[in-house]
Amino acid sequence: MKILVTGGLGFIGSHTVVALQQKGHEVYIIDNLSNSSLQVLEGITKITKVTPHFTKLDLRNKESVKNYFVANQDVDGIIHFAASKAVGESVENPLLYYENNLNTLTYILQELQKLPKANFIFSSSCTVYGQADELPITENAPVKPAESPYGNTKQIGEEIIKDATRVNEKLQAIALRYFNPIGAHPSAEIGELPIGVPQNLIPFITQTAVGLRKELSVFGNDYPTKDGTCVRDYIHVMDLAEAHVVAVERLLNNNNKSDYEVFNLGTGKGYSVLEVIQTFEKVTKQKLPYRIAERRPGDVVAAYADTTLANKDLGWTAQLTLADALESAWKWQLKLKNNN
C-alpha cells in the first residue's frame, strides 16, 4: 500500500518508515526539515535498501498541501507525525504551536477526505491525561486540562479528527497516545536527534555519559514514589513504530470497530528516573554523574499505561525492554560522537 508519513524524518517518523518498508509498503515522506536532517533519509535507505519518496514541504502552506494531494490521489493511508513537540517552547510561543500543530492537521484532513481512501493515524500523547486519578491509565481516563499549549494541541487535534470522522463516513482514524518513546534502531543508522539542549531524559543521559554535558539534573526526589523521583512508562521506539504499522493495516483491512478509535501505546510498566539511571549504568558500564535539582513545574508524579486495549483489540504488544532501549540509545550516541 502507498502510505504517506508526515514528519517522516523525525525520531518516531523515521523508525516507522523503516517498519513500513520492511512490511513491503511504499512510503512517501513529507518533512520541512525544521527538526530533522536529510541524513536520516540515508539512514533509512541503509537499513531497508529502499529509498522512500521524499518531498520537502511546509504543511502550514495550505496551497502546497492542496497541490501535493492533487498529485498523489492514490495514497491509501496517512500517518501524521509532523508537529512541534517541545513543552517549554510551546509555553513561550503558543501561537507557533497552534499554527504548526492544528492548522496543518486541518489542511491535511481537508485534502484527505477528497481522496478515494481516507485512512488516518494521528500521533497523540499521554499528556492528554495530565496527572491521572488512577494508575495504570486506561483510554477511558478523563482528559484533564492541558499543562501546556503543546499538550492542548494534542487534545484539540483529537477533537478535530473525531468531529471530522463523525460527518465524513469515508474518513477512518486512529489516535495513538504514546507514553515515553526512547531508544534507536539496533543498526544505529537512525535515532533521536535533539536540537540544542535535550528536552527528554534519555538523550540527556547519553549526552552526559559521552561527555557532552557535565552532569544530569534529576528534577525532584521528594515525589510520592518508591524512590522520590518521577515515574514514567518508557517504550522502545521500534515497538512504537511497529504499532503504527499494525494500526494503519487495521484501517486498510477494515478491522476497526468504529470510525474513530484511541489506543494507549506503552509497556504497562513504570520506571523511576533513578531506576532508568541505574539500568543505563548497568547496561553500558558507564558511571553517570547526576545531581538532584528542584522540581520542574508541570511534571506529573507518575504515568504508565494500561495496555489491555492495544494488546487485545489492536493486536500489538511491546516486545523490547528498558535495557534494550537504553543499549540502543547508547550505541546511537556513540555513533554520533564518532561521526563528529
UniProtKB/TrEMBL annotation:
It holds the Pfam family GDP_Man_Dehyd. InterPro entries: NAD(P)-bd_dom (IPR016040), NAD(P)-bd_dom_sf (IPR036291), UDP_G4E (IPR005886). Pathway: Carbohydrate metabolism; galactose metabolism. Keywords: Carbohydrate metabolism, Isomerase, NAD. It catalyses: UDP-alpha-D-glucose = UDP-alpha-D-galactose. Its cofactor is NAD(+). Residues 4-327 form the NAD(P)-binding domain. Its EC number is 5.1.3.2. CDD domains: UDP_G4E_1_SDR_e. It is an enzyme of class 5 (isomerase). It comes from the Bacteria. Homodimer. Belongs to the NAD(P)-dependent epimerase/dehydratase family. NCBIfam families: galE (TIGR01179). This is UDP-glucose 4-epimerase. The gene is galE.
